[in-house]
Amino acid sequence: MHKPSNALGVARDVSPSQPVTLVRPHAARRAARYFVEKFPGTSMYAVKANPSPDLIRTLWDSGIATFDVASIAEVRLVRGLLPTATLCFMHPVKPAEAIAEAYHVHGVRVFSLDSVDEVAKIVAACATGGVPAADLTLCVRLRVSSAHAKLSLAAKFGVGVDEAAPVLHAARQAADALGIAFHVGSQAMSPQAYADAMALVRAAIVRSGVTVDVIDVGGGFPSVYPGMEAAPLERYFAVIHRAFEDLPVSYSAELWCEPGRALAAEYASILVRVEKRRDDTLFINDGAYGALFDAAHIDWRFPVELVRDVPSRAKMLPFSLYGPTCDDMDFMRGPFLLPADVAAGDYVEIGMLGAYGCAMRTSFNGFGNGETVIASDEPMASAYTVAEPSREKVTAIREVRS
Ligand SMILES: *Cc1c(COP(=O)(O)O)cnc(C)c1O
Question: What domains, with CATH codes, occur in the chain?
Answer without folding.
Answer: 2-23+265-401 (2.40.37.10), 26-264 (3.20.20.10)
